[in-house]
Structures are given as structure tokens and as C-alpha cells.
Specification:
Elements (H helix, E strand, L loop, with lengths): L12 E5 L3 H4 L1 H12 L3 E5 L12 E3 L6 H14 L5 H7 E2 L1 H8 L4 H8 L3 H13 L3 E5 L1 H4 L4 H14 L10 E3 L6 H6 L6 E2 L3 E2 L3 H11 L11 H10 L4 E5 L3 H4 L3 H10 L2 E6 L11 E4 L8 E4 L4 E5 L12 H11 L9 H11 L16 E2 L23 E2 L18 E6 L15 H6 L4 E4 L1 H7 L6 E5 L4 E8 L7 E5 L12 E4 L6 E2 L3 E7 L2
Parallel strand pairs: 1-2, 1-5, 2-3, 4-15, 5-6, 9-10, 10-11, 16-20, 17-19
Antiparallel strand pairs: 7-8, 12-13, 13-14, 16-23, 17-20, 18-19, 18-23, 21-22
């Protein structure tokens, strides 16, 4: 997040897009509701009528995969009505003329044809957001899990810069992370192209810094993303996989392909706290510990680094992840000798500029938001204050591109996936909790009443659903939460694994799969 969760309370306008906030981030939703009580305008753009949409001043239901067109249409109106911040643009950005020219091609009437949103509503959104003194954007994986995910995010940045909603309190572009400590994993180099703090592996001075610190030869080659690893596993170029705290058999698209890839490697090692569907395929399972059984830190969605303290002894033969990794490394010939997570944190501070002033003593209490370069620095509440981090914000002139897969006569319905309030990701933890699992114990398929009536489908009927990749069965929920011609299904339930159907096509830059859009057909099961 460029800004902080608490700042949402004081925004004049909050634009939620691609985020089922109340289900997936309820504490953030609470701040949004407080802002609404104070008079803020709430805009929600989501194909489903999710709970937060019922609180919105305006809710629009864009066709799946049309977010770039919608955002370009909003910006067209803002420019046309002169609601943009020209002074901010002149002082803080570059590339404005290119995007100004592009946006001429996205009048509300044209955008309405693409998105299915009435032109008047596009104008209303532009007015609410464009006229606000402090406007915040909140988004999640409904924006990123597309073949145009990077384009979607850049378009949101364009909107914030166009209106000067950057570098001030209660503004900004604020992604809500999809899983616990995703922010921390990325910060610590859990990406194939960077060391900790996003320091590129192919910059020679960065490489030398880490070689000196770790007394080891390091590669300057960018590694593989998850789709590339799975492709390598299929063609034999990847011989072994070490999966830590991830369940790709359920979370990744086209699960049949994932299973074939995992079964094709010479060695599959899975380190987790439960025997997930992925771990069941492993040659070796290493039992890690949960958050309650170890010391360490998490970095949350607002860049806040927080202490995690051991509350109970590790169960059974499980061990903290860092100890497992340290022992494996030593056995492979590279000796690690950290005596505690605190020692690891000290090394992080020494090598990672944005974490330079963070140590365990300073993490007592509510934690510290990075960047925090020195031990006397208080942490950073919001980014880009006084000056945008790269010098000037770069506008990107982005044309709309449709999803990788569209409906046709054979597969006439749109399918999107997501989450429900009681479960977390692949249900590894929540479905092992009897109380949570009793809330929602099986998968379901949402279908619009018009489609259900046309196909003779009733509430609770079992249907077969097929895509170009697979077939599953599920029970129906007949509801107008979804639009006519569209379906929705949560992905928590391995018994009706919707990711057997989803499309593995991915964004060419971020390599994130298009989990939010695919074409399917359904019929009543016998």
C-alpha cells in the first residue's frame, strides 16, 4: 500500500475495485465503513454484488476482464470535465501527453459498450473520484489475476496521478495482499528477479554486495516464475521442486496440468503444517510450524513489520521453517549459523536499505512501516511524500485488451473465482478448524436466476461444469449476486476444485495467471 489502513477512515472518496473487502479483509472494510459514516463517497466496481457493494454510493458491475476500459473511461471524463490536477501533473509526472491522446478514444458511450456499465454511471464515478480532495483506491486480486494484470495496476496508478491523489494522507493506490505475509515474502526476495528489498539480481554492484555478505558466488541470471517452473517440470528442464507453505495443486490454474508437472519431477519436497493435496504428491514432506509455534516477523499489507512470538511448543516433529532451511543448507555444503530469528533480522537490516533501521528491540508494540532506513527513523506512514520515489511518476498509455479466453457457442458462460468469508485460500488451515468449516463446508456455484430458469436449474441442484481444460460437479446457489451470463465459484474446496477449469494463460510481465476469467458450460448432473 502506498498509504496506511487507518488513513482510509479520513478519505473523502474510496474506490474499491477487484476486492471483496468484507470477506477477505474485514478489518480494512471496517475502516472503509467508518469513512462512509463520516461522509465519504464509496465507489465499488465488481462484477458481483458483494456485501460492500450494498453500502456503496455507486456500484457498477463491469464485464469480466474490462477494467482497463473502465478506468480509461473514468479518466476520459475527468479530463473532459477538467477535474484533473494539472499542477500535480506538471510538477510530478511524465508521459502525460501520450495518455491524454489515448484517452480521447474512450468516451463513456464506447466504454459502456465494452464494460456493460451505463455511461451515466461512468460519469458519476469520475465526478465522485475526480472532485474529491482525498481519494483512495483499494484493490485486490480481482485486478491482478488477469493476463492484463500489470495493465490494470498501471491504469489505477494513472488515475491516482491524474487527480493528484498520491503522496498525501488518505490517498494513494492501495493493494490488499491476498495471503498472510505476501508483502514480507516479496520484501525478502521471494521473487525470481530480486534480492531482498527488490534489489535486482542482475546489477553487478548489488550482486557483489550480497556475495561479500554471504561469502558465496551468486548468479546474475533471473530465475523462473511459477508458470515457468511448471513448464520446466513438464519438459524435464526442472528436475526438483521445493514447495514451502504453498498448495499449487489447489491454488494454481488448470490443476490437471499442475498434477502432471509435479509428478514429472525427480524430487518434490513440500514443507507445510498440514498434509495438503500438494504434500500428498511429495517424495519428502518436511513438517514446518505454524505462526503460534515460532518467533519471527510478518510484514503486512501496509508495509508494517511486526513481531510474531512463540506461544506454544512445536507440535510433534515440526520445526520452525528457518531452522529447517538452515540445516538443509548446511548439509548441502553452505553452512548457516544463525542462532535466532533476531540474528536473521539484523542481517536483513544490514543488507536491505528499506529495513535498515528495523531490529527486534524496535518492533515492540505496533511495529514499524518501511521504509525505515535508520534506527532513529520513525518509519513511513505513506509513500511519495514531497517527491515520487522514481523521481517523477510515469503515465502509461494503455489500450484495452480483452481476456485471453472469451465465451462462444460451446462454452457460453463466463466463470470467475474468489473467496468466502469463512475460509482462507486453499482451506489448509480453515477447513481443519471445525467451527469455520461448519460455516461453509462444501463448494457451490452461483448462477443468475435468469440463466437457471432457462436451463431448468433450481437451488441446490447438482450440475456438471466444464471448460476447455476439465470438468467438475457442484451444487448451485441461484442468486442475482452474479450477472446474467456469469457464474462464480470459490476455490477453497478440493472436492469441487474449480481450478481444474481455470485458464493458465498469464500476464506477460508479472506472470500471474488469469484466474478471474474463463469460459465454461454447465448442465444438470444425472
Amino acid at each position: 500500500m502506498t498509504n496506511s489502513i487507518a488513513e482510509l477512515e479520513d478519505a473523502d472518496c474510496i474506490f474499491v475495485i477487484g476486492s471483496n473487502t468484507t470477506s477477505s479483509h474485514p478489518l480494512v472494510a471496517t475502516r472503509i465503513f467508518r469513512a462512509k459514516q463520516k461522509g465519504a463517497k464509496l465507489i465499488v466496481a465488481d462484477p458481483r454484488t458483494i456485501q460492500i457493494a450494498t453500502m456503496a454510493d455507486i456500484h457498477v458491475r463491469q464485464n469480466l476482464g474490462t477494467d482497463v476500459a473502465l478506468l480509461n473511461g473514468i479518466m476520459h471524463v475527468i479530463l473532459d470535465r477538467r477535474w484533473h490536477d494539472q499542477d500535480f501533473i506538471d510538477k510530478n509526472t511524465e508521459g502525460f501527453e501520450e495518455i491524454r491522446e489515448l484517452l480521447k478514444g474512450y468516451p463513456p458511450e464506447k466504454v459502456s459498450e465494452i464494460t456493460g456499465i451505463p455511461a451515466d454511471n461512468i460519469v458519476r464515478i469520475a465526478e465522485y473520484y475526480g472532485k474529491a480532495e482525498k481519494a483512495s483506491i483499494v484493490y485486490c486480486m480481482g485486478i491482478t489475476q488477469h493476463t492484463t494484470g500489470v495493465d490494470n495496476v498501471k491504469s489505477l496508478a494513472n488515475l491516482a496521478m491524474l487527480t493528484g491523489n498520491l503522496g498525501r494522507e488518505s490517498t494513494g493506490v492501495n493493494p490488499l495482499r491476498g495471503q498472510n505475509n505476501v508483502q514480507g515474502a516479496c520484501d525478502m526476495g521471494g521473487l525470481p528477479n530480486v534480492y531482498p528489498a527488490y534489489q535486482p539480481v542482475n546489477m553487478i554492484d548489488i550482486q557483489k554486495k550480497f556475495e561479500t555478505a554471504w561469502n558465496a558466488r551468486l548468479s546474475d541470471k533471473v530465475g523462473l516464475t511459477v508458470p515457468e517452473m511448471l513448464s520446466g517440470a513438464m519438459d524435464g528442464s526442472v528436475k526438483a521442486l521445493y514447495v514451502l507453505g504453498e498448495n499449487p495443486m489447489q491454488s494454481d490454474p488448470d490443476s490437471s496440468h499442475v498434477e502432471k508437472a509435479l509428478k514429472n519431477v525427480d524430487l518434490l519436497v513440500v514443507q507445510d503444517i498440514f498434509l495438503t493435496p500438494t504434500a500428498q504428491l511429495a517424495h519428502v514432506v518436511l513438517p514446518g510450524t505454524s505462526f503460534a509455534e515460532k518467533d519471527g516477523t510478518f510484514s503486512n499489507t501496509e508495509r508494517r513489520v511486526m513481531r510474531v512470538r512463540q506461544a506454544i511448543d512445536p507440535v510433534g516433529d515440526s520445526r520452525p521453517d528457518w531452522k529447517i532451511i538452515q540445516d538443509l543448507s548446511t548439509r548441502f555444503g553452505y553452512e548457516m549459523n544463525y542462532d535466532s530469528p533476531a540474528a536473521i533480522m539484523d542481517e536483513i537490516a544490514a543488507l536491505t536499505p528499506s529495513y535498515g533501521g528495523i531490529n527486534y528491540d524496535r518492533l515492540e508494540g505496533e511495529g514499524i512501516q518501511w521504509p525505515c532506513p535508520t534506527t532513529d527513523h520513525p518509519g513511513t506512514k505513506f509513500l511519495h511524500k514531497d517527491k515520487i520515489a522514481r523521481g517523477k511518476g510515469l503515465f502509461h498509455a494503455i489500450e484495452y485488451r480483452p481476456p485471453a479466453e472469451t465465451v462462444d457457442d460451446e462454452y457460453p458462460l463466463w466463470l470467475s473465482t474468489g473467496r468466502v468469508f469463512a475460509h482462507y485460500h486453499t482451506g489448509t488451515m480453515t477447513r481443519n478448524c471445525p467451527t469455520l468449516n461448519s460455516e461453509i463446508s462444501e463448494g457451490f456455484l452461483e448462477i443468475n436466476p435468469v440463466d437457471a430458469d432457462r436451463m431448468g436449474i433450481h437451488q441446490g441442484d447438482e450440475v456438471r461444469m466444464a471448460s476447455r481444460r476439465g470438468e467438475i460437479t457442484a451444487r448451485t446457489v441461484v442468486t442475482d449476486r452474479v450477472k446474467e451470463g456469469s457464474l462464480f465459484m470459490p476455490f477453497h474446496f478440493i472436492e469441487s476444485n474449480v481450478n481444474l477449469l481455470t485458464n493458465p494463460a498469464f500476464d506477460p510481465i508479472a506472470k500471474i495467471p488469469e484466474l478471474k476469467v474463463c469460459a465454461v458450460r454447465i448442465e444438470k448432473a444425472a
